[in-house]
Amino acid sequence: MSGGTFMGMPAFPQAAKAALADTRLRANLTHATHTIRTKRATAVAELDDWNDLREAGKQIKDHTLAHLDTYLLQLEAAVTTAGGTVHWATDADDANRIITDLVHATGHTEVVKVKSMATQEIGLNHALEQAGITAVETDLAELIVQLDDDLPSHILVPAIHKNRAQIRDIFTHHMHHWGRPAPDNLTDTPADLAEAARLHLREKFLRAKVAISGANFMIAETGTIVVLESEGNGRMCLTLPDTLITLAGIEKILPTWQDLEVFLQTLPRSSTAERMNPYTTTWTGTTPHDGPQNFHLVLLDNGRTNTLADPTGRQALRCIRCSACLNVCPVYERTGGHTYGSPYPGPIGAILTPQLHGTTTPLHASLPYASTLCGACYDVCPVAINIPDILIHLRERITQGGSAQQQGRKVTVKPAKGHAAERAAMRTAQWALTHPTALGTAQRLATTTRRLHPRRLPGPGKAWTTTRDLPTLPPTAFRAWWKTRSLPTSAPAQNGRTTP
Amino acid sequence: MTTSRDQILARIRTALGPPADHQPPYEHAITRTYRTTHATRTPRERTALLADNLTDYRAHVHHTTPDGLPALIARLLADHGSRTLITPTDLPPHWLSAIPPSDVEIRTDDPHLTHHDLDTTDSVVTGCALAIAETGTIVLDTGPGQGHRRITLIPDHHICVIHAPHQIHDSLPQALLHLDPTHPHTLISGPSATSDIELDRVEGVHGPRTLDAVIVTE
């Protein structure tokens, strides 16, 4: 039971069409996203310096990214001095191999996991399963997804697409395959469901010898790792086992301990709409007689350096995975997370996935178009990532091609297929707008034939008008009207002058 | 052979290009115009805010004096029906002086206790490093009166003693200045909770499901 895989997912428009037909999914998502949206706004409104915190968070992340090599080396030295071991992984395979070897070296075949986006990104559970190691997800929502052999659909709440009755059924039908069965006559009240998860996982926590976690923040100056959570499953995994393996993207770094004062204020409020999440754990290397005595930190690239090379796109690496952008997105609210074909759904996924993995597959090339460009995501982002700007930038990259960095080498990306009509239309527009006479002729022709225009475009433009009507043309083009307009004789003219 | 470490560092340097010549030191690189505290409060107001925020997240807040502390701890254990208690080795002994020995077996934090031993322990009593009023947060740093991290994790009932006014700080920025990052920390804001079912918060998953925060005012 490795959980599903995002491999072979269709491009966003096809996946979205299927998702939109699922009325229960839409009801679940509408309920959940609207609940959290209002709460977030209230939690943020409590702080009158929110914009200053947001700006500082943005600057701290930008500064760190601009000196990433320096801070990574500082972090490595600090973690090593504090008794930890640092590993570097260029890609998913590299990271999976390192972690599998580390688990094998302990001699154990079961690991407990704290919810981690990075391990989702590299498909760690599947890699461990291939190596004969069982990875037990301990976050409630991750547990729901794992028991149901499903895929995560939200960064914070991977089972957001399931309602309480569905979760009850998953527990009743699948918990006994993994360990302690669900209690008899389990109800669908959230408190009872949480109790069932507590009982199911308790034995696993107490006997676990190896844990795997992600990291919310890593402090370069001290080597401190920080994990925020709510349930206490994180504390269990980070405290009780003998060996702790933490996988973190190289962009999760902050220069100083003081920098936490910004992000520990902005992350919980943006994420679960709380002043502070119930539990935050920080640790620095190993501590004698307290917590895991073997600590390994695996630093992951997996496309992050490709992203760093793009001056417009690199701001996506500021992301602290709060998921506020998902909760406000009109597209995410309707299609859900699976349609984005990666563990990173929603607006952030639409800019992160194509940058981490390139735009060569139809799915990845479709993601920058999975947006209305309304900008709600940018408004709520606690590190001010201008998601609409990056979406437009990526659309340009896809239709026009351009230079990029891949695995440290400069490459030229070819224009993607399927955008020929768009390119032709833009070239024509560019020519027409720089040739006024031709433009005038074309406009006259277009307006005089306006009654004959179809509501939908034929040929390659058909897809564009599948979901929208062509705009109706006015009887006269603006430029033609401007030339022929009759000026009123007694009204005040421009520039404040009056006629006598 | 090029290591993954070398490759990643080389990729970063290629991505960033040559470093700029004049760069301000980090202390001056960031505009920190945010507040270090969101209000000016008297010690009494600070304590009240902490109590309010802890209560908001379903911690049970109790106020007492140094003299009243032992009786309060004894009552909280009795109310919870606790038969076993674990404490840090350096907890002031008089805190436990009102607990009837026949009712509660008292264990002390000991590396030889197994996780299962702790799982059969009903309650834990500790002090804390400090508390943060604006966020309703208690910070443990394994310092005096707190014990190892696992004793405040596995038992289902945590009684945590906070001394007012000196242990209560206004805000997160002020509190962080008093913490040593080399120690392991646990920041606690209410009992264990989850928002994983329909994004609605419910209390009580893996951590202690009952948090009694005892504020002792000198």
UniProtKB/TrEMBL annotation, chain A:
Give GO BP annotations, semicolon-separated: lactate metabolic process
Which UniProt keywords are given for this protein, alphabetically ordered? Answer: 4Fe-4S, Electron transport, Iron, Iron-sulfur, Metal-binding, Repeat, Transport
The 4Fe-4S ferredoxin-type domain, residue ranges: 316-385
Q: Which InterPro entries match?
A: 4Fe4S_Fe-S-bd, 4Fe4S_Fe_S_CS, FTHF_cligase-like_sf, Helical_ferredxn, LUD_dom, LutB/LldF, LutB_C, NagB/RpiA_transferase-like
What GO MF annotations does this protein's record show?
Answer: 4 iron, 4 sulfur cluster binding; metal ion binding
What is the scientific name of the source organism? Answer: Actinacidiphila rubida
Q: Where is the Lactate utilization protein B C-terminal domain?
A: 394-485
Q: Which Pfam families does the record match to this protein?
A: Fer4_8 (PF13183), LUD_dom (PF02589), LutB_C (PF11870)
Its name, as the record gives it, is: L-lactate dehydrogenase complex protein LldF
Q: Where is the LUD domain?
A: 74-286
Question: What Gene3D superfamilies does the record tag this protein with?
Answer: Alpha-helical ferredoxin, NagB/RpiA/CoA transferase-like
Automatic annotation (TrEMBL), chain B:
What InterPro entries does the database record attribute to this sequence? FTHF_cligase-like_sf, LUD_dom, NagB/RpiA_transferase-like
Q: Name one Pfam family in it.
A: LUD_dom
Q: What is this protein called?
A: L-lactate dehydrogenase complex protein LldG
Q: Could you list the residue ranges that cross the membrane?
A: none
Q: Where is the LUD domain?
A: 50-216
